[in-house]
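Q: Convert this sequence to structure tokens.
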Amino acid sequence: MKSYLYKIWNSLEKLESNIAFYPSIISALGLMFAFVMIYLESRGVSKYLVEHAPILVVNNTETARSLLTTFIAGLISIMVFSFSMVMILLNQASSNFSPRVLPGLISNRRHQTILGIYNATLLYCIFILVSIAPHGKSYQVPGFSVLLSIIFMTLSLGAFIYFIHSISQEIQVNTMMDKIFRASKRRLEHLIDSEKHIDVDFEETSDWKAISAVSTGYMQDVNLKSLMTLAEEHQLKIAIVPVKGAYILKGLPVLKYKGKVDKDKDDDLDLEKRLVEAITFSNNELIEDNYILAFKQITEIALKAMSPGINDPGTCINAIDYLTELFALRLQKKDRSYYYNSDDEALIHIQTVSFEDLLYNVMAAMRTYCKHDIIVVQKLFVMFQYLLQTESVLNTGYKECIIKEVIHLRNDALNNHQNDRDIEVIKSYIAKLKNVTPSEYSFDI
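A:
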């Protein structure tokens, strides 16, 4: 039951990231409120207010119609402009930065809420206009409802001004990188806080029984609580085979487990079905579920900035600053992750991307596309210098892989620069790095 509820919750989260989710909800609320006001008008709310507070009522039929017609035409124009701006933002982000940033931009709740306010006000005005119906020889004017439409239109204009401000900020690359960085930082800090610093000698899983994927897609998330419940109930040990965020093809192993299933084969198959149901597959990748995506997205923005068509090393340097802070935070996390029961026994092994692989994948791309730019190379050396001086690197085995990448960067930089001054700068940074590393590591120049 819990696994089904978890899948429903995940489906709602996916729906929430859709650009039409909040506009649809707010539009429905606006439509419902219009019907409520039409009902109240039929009960004489405007007539009562005319007698007791006439300032709150628009009591002229032509004025009411003119106002509502103008509001409807203006709101349609504002909506078209706003949707066009959103599409321009998405197109520019995809072409100038990285297509991977689009899911984060589409799921922006502020823009969705603003578009919802427009549509809700538009629907409200349309139905209030329709409710101005003949009543004998005159027309029944929903005066109080028209006054509310003026208030809602004023709110929509305020939302439009805020939308212009917000879209002008969102389209800036620094704002995009900062948003990516903050989402990844929150996820990393959560993982670090949830880690129990207990040395675990987990069993070898090569001979464990494997469970294959029943569908194709990115492994978005795993319901660890559901897996732990099954592990304790059936006395199992479970290993998650792929790394979260990996693209899984149907038929490839996603879980391995070890334990005795005392009943018949049907119970064994039912258990495997319940185990694999704890894994959520999706065609979208979100940083909130997988911090590795932040490294990919920021690296791709940096590489795009260094392309000949854009040629923006300043953006690349800013991206390296964000990567430096993320790597420093990643140094605090262990390469091996486990999920423990209440007795601090590790029953689930969670496959993670090692720090060495993460650093290599980022630096392999950066070295390939940025090694010709001495300014960017200097910034990368500064990043390594900072990482080697952090307290976290002293308590882990990550120093050696950092130094390996320093040597690779040094070799590529020296091979791609012939200017004496550039070579002198590279050697000076290597000399600085030698002062913060133990003597057993060689930085021969």
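The first helix runs from residue 2 to 16.
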